[in-house]
Automatic annotation (TrEMBL), chains A, B, C, D:
It comes from Halobacillus salinarum. Keywords: Acetylation, Hydrolase. This is Glutaminase. SUPFAM superfamilies: beta-lactamase/transpeptidase-like (SSF56601). The gene is glsA. The keyword Acetylation applies. One of its GO terms (molecular function) is glutaminase activity. InterPro entries: Beta-lactam/transpept-like (IPR012338), Glutaminase (IPR015868). It is an enzyme of class 3 (hydrolase). Homotetramer. Its EC number is 3.5.1.2.
Amino acid sequence: MHKLNNDYLEDAVEDSMPFAAQGEVNTSLPDLDGTKKDLLGVTILTTDQQKFTGGNWEQTVPMQSTSKIISLMLALHDFGKDRVFQAVGMEPMGDFFNSISQLESYDTSKPFNPMINAGAIAVSALIKGHNNNNRFERYLHFLQRVTDNQELHLNEQVYEAEKANGARNRALAYFMESVGTLITDVEEALDLYFRINSVMMNCDDFAKVGLFLARGGRAPDNDEKLIPANHLRTVNAIMMTSGMYNSSGRHAVEVGFPCKSGVSGSIIGVVPGLMGIGIVGPAIDEKGNSTAGGALLRKLSQDLELNLFGDGHIYGRGISGGV
Amino acid sequence: MHKLNNDYLEDAVEDSMPFAAQGEVNTSLPDLDGTKKDLLGVTILTTDQQKFTGGNWEQTVPMQSTSKIISLMLALHDFGKDRVFQAVGMEPMGDFFNSISQLESYDTSKPFNPMINAGAIAVSALIKGHNNNNRFERYLHFLQRVTDNQELHLNEQVYEAEKANGARNRALAYFMESVGTLITDVEEALDLYFRINSVMMNCDDFAKVGLFLARGGRAPDNDEKLIPANHLRTVNAIMMTSGMYNSSGRHAVEVGFPCKSGVSGSIIGVVPGLMGIGIVGPAIDEKGNSTAGGALLRKLSQDLELNLFGDGHIYGRGISGGV
Amino acid sequence: MHKLNNDYLEDAVEDSMPFAAQGEVNTSLPDLDGTKKDLLGVTILTTDQQKFTGGNWEQTVPMQSTSKIISLMLALHDFGKDRVFQAVGMEPMGDFFNSISQLESYDTSKPFNPMINAGAIAVSALIKGHNNNNRFERYLHFLQRVTDNQELHLNEQVYEAEKANGARNRALAYFMESVGTLITDVEEALDLYFRINSVMMNCDDFAKVGLFLARGGRAPDNDEKLIPANHLRTVNAIMMTSGMYNSSGRHAVEVGFPCKSGVSGSIIGVVPGLMGIGIVGPAIDEKGNSTAGGALLRKLSQDLELNLFGDGHIYGRGISGGV
Amino acid sequence: MHKLNNDYLEDAVEDSMPFAAQGEVNTSLPDLDGTKKDLLGVTILTTDQQKFTGGNWEQTVPMQSTSKIISLMLALHDFGKDRVFQAVGMEPMGDFFNSISQLESYDTSKPFNPMINAGAIAVSALIKGHNNNNRFERYLHFLQRVTDNQELHLNEQVYEAEKANGARNRALAYFMESVGTLITDVEEALDLYFRINSVMMNCDDFAKVGLFLARGGRAPDNDEKLIPANHLRTVNAIMMTSGMYNSSGRHAVEVGFPCKSGVSGSIIGVVPGLMGIGIVGPAIDEKGNSTAGGALLRKLSQDLELNLFGDGHIYGRGISGGV
């Protein structure tokens, strides 16, 4: 049994950091100050209001694909489950996150799920607003409430890089237009998608999103219920089956609680009822997941017995003193 | 909040039975006595040794694909995780359970996971034994211990039907031989696979398997630990991401705990630490899952708050009096 | 044996016209004056300078995919075979002309051949010119020389329709950019592609292109050799294996000489050494080929013994008096 | 212009032999006496009854896939075009000859064409006979008439090797059974397929088959018409679009007349009205075609102007003195 405290987390980070050597930093993102390969940071926020940190937890990186769960929550809020899942499926895919073949092969040509690029473009296109500025403002406002951080904002350098490297996402979006999946203007949908990927966050911010999903969708400042239970379960379950790209199956076995990764090396983790986890480790593997971050999650899951599919008991038993 | 008792289960079965009309009984199986389209039965066994039943819980059906979790446990026991996952992946697939294209497209030509036919053939081929009789005996003995039911045995009619309708499985197995995935004799591997699919079980038996996975892999008769914690988590996690064929993503959203279905309309459900669930409802949808059984699982999950990805609390809160 | 003359052609058109009922006019093209479903026209131009016509041979339609052979000739002229076939393959595909899966699956992500949309976009991007106006001028000038028709020009309505319905082509082009296949500016490449598809031609014009390919690439006015023998064989051979979309195999069996079709219902036919054929029949099948035009080609091939794969003799024996 | 004689052919073989170094001999075939990597032989038989040979033309090798055109002719004879093309398509495929994905993806699950393994299994299953011995006897008798060689017979060693290495073909056949494409007994169909691949032939024999297809399907001994014109065109056309596996498009460009290759390094060539060509060159490329044989075909096509898609004239002009 392990005591969950800052010392434990520092040790866990130190143990996991060597796995950074197995990955590479995503070169399509701008060389932001301090984004080095062997960085690793973590913040854990518990539902009983404790906070623990380890390593380079203050390092900011772009949200990248971790934004997909924010836009999914907002689209569910704006349009409800039926409409959202007309535009996108909820099945794991078994192929790389930017696959276009799978888009063509799937029955109705809707993307497999909201965690892959095509699905996230289709979902973010559902966010209500009278123009893209307004839609992004609503996204940012929601994100600021969830994280209780009014400072979050779009990073122009990242946004420009997203646009400059957007060919594959353009292909996905125009394909969806051609089969009638994407009914809004393609360039506008892409522009919004590029913006929401370009907000900088640190481990605290990522952990706040995890905590929001772990404690019933309540705002951190005033406990207001921002998202109903039904939508929350939907988001957590889809993170479980599809959140770690085409390593989601392995992640379920080895970590065993819902997570969402981004190619910036960020990971949001959700242990329902117990804690939110935010990780930054910029070196990623060929599937797009932080290598050191993955090692850290495996360690946390094992030490603290956070695996939901565990050994004949309800998870979380491994934390001495409890959470 | 709901009281979990027989009356509640009878009502739940009655509510769910109409969904049988949306499915069809699998005609490739022999017309076994009493396997009618509108049957639905359920047994729930809790970790604190209570038993509840509803509907046609005594109806037996062939194990079919529910056998896949038994053979996975046995192969993990016999060879360990590393060897088993050399032969098969652990990623959900996004295609039908008998897809052969996915077999050819996947990097190393190993099947995506042990819950699809190709994967289960590869896994069952790992079960130790000096011949097929011996391998099947070991399988049956393990199944009898897990279910505490010495009466379980192979049904010859089902076995003959499996062999007669085995063309697709033969295609999968010979393909795996041709790419070096399946190293044992193909016809022997298929014969064993057909046998293990042909054991008849009722809801009690299926629930016993679920309970075994929910309470730490301990034998029901003497609490002996038959399977280590690590393997148990592996099996439960793979059931979560791939257990309901290419409806596993939807199942995670709507039900939210590990299940495995068979085309006989059987379902094994696992709520870790709380209960095992056995369901029989022979009418299946085009993906191979019991339609009425699925409705019943959704109802149980919602009423008893069994969804692992739930609303800011640890699951199981919906049961009055507790389990 | 048949006498090839205008009466014969009128009869052949009349026999073939009923097949128009099996097709539909492509509705993504503007409703140009007189493009009716049951139109059918043909012009045959022989290498010994005879001309025969039948039906609505004066009807103009947009070039659409028949432009693909003009841009292939021009790209071969501008860059040579090695460079062109770095950008595109020369294998028939076995899938629909706008398939994007095949693009992703093919080894090097280059399009299968220059007769499918992706391949034609990649090929036309190779046409030399200091800007798109200049490139299109060169295309048009070459087309005017080949057809000996200075009146040919871009139809603005068709061009606008191409742009408005260009989502799938945009998806293909951006995908190629994302894998490094398309190295020019995507929007510029698409704009040129849309322009070259938008020239209006009648059966005489289409037959002129066929004759050019049948008589050694010599200009009709002064017999100047515009294209070397090697390139000419390349174009004719690729038309044979891939010119009729994913009906090219059937077309080889039933017609047996190189043709290229467009979704406007146009077809260019080449009988090497003997004749060029131009056909307009706007009703197309689900693969994109003129239904009545296909029937007419089958009849011409059989009556005049034009099938290159024929019965123990060299083709063209069926024409009384010879050509 | 070239004189077609034995000296010319010897020189052509010598020029082409170095290309053998780019290939490998198929190791799944038994190490038959003298089948060495750098062998190359050719026989040309003209429609005006001349015979020319070069290199190791007496070397025998198993027919392998060159048998596919014999079984196609026999099936067309026994059942007619409509029935045969219910069982198999006639489109080139764009994938490797033993692809199983394409089998699953194609609309009706029938194989793309009779030149790929799945298609040839389905076609040979149509050969009439009251048992497999009788079917193979009819095949062999037809082959002996076509080649005018009563000595041809099954090689037991090759047949055993075919059976021992038959896993992929078994997979294809059982897949076809599972989707209803193959209606005969699978093991019987495979056994017949293995037998017809196992006849040993030399360049003379292969050239005889080519000549048969080049001169109207007439028996070499008494000019009896064994196959009607319609079927002959069908076979030649399918060889043109699909005969060289997924190099058929390149072959059409570079050689330009119908050929069929086998993984034993054999090639049958057909120049309609002019000649049949038989080639043996055991070193094959990764697509299954003889590397030196391909070089020799390119040289013959260019020197003798045999390309059907040629430069403004009817093919065959390059032979001095004529054929």
